[in-house]
Amino acid sequence: MKKFITASMIGLLVAAAPVTQALAYQGGHRSDVSPAQAMRIAERAVGGKAYKAEPDHYKGRRAYSVDVRQARSLVQVDVDARSGKILHMEREKSHGPYAHRQFDRQHR
């Protein structure tokens, strides 16, 4: 009887492992914002074209740092990873056709 109970418990643990790993990977929150959603949010806020979104932290909150090209400048937008709210925006001062390359070098 003890072997049956032990085998059953092991079977339950093995069956639950993938579900637990999936929740850990997603942060366990259904309302989390994806990188693609963060890019769309930043594009709407700035009025440009997002070309990069990276996981980051802003003042202790999980966020995405999204780089958006707007006309002749670049804007870095921090988007809250849970709510999708804009946390911070910073405009890069460089102008011209190679501004995005200067921005990338400074933020690596």
Automatic annotation (TrEMBL):
Residues 1-24 form the signal peptide. Keywords: Signal. Gene3D superfamilies: 3.10.450.40. Residues 33-87 form the PepSY domain. Pfam families: PepSY. The keyword Signal applies. This is PepSY domain-containing protein.
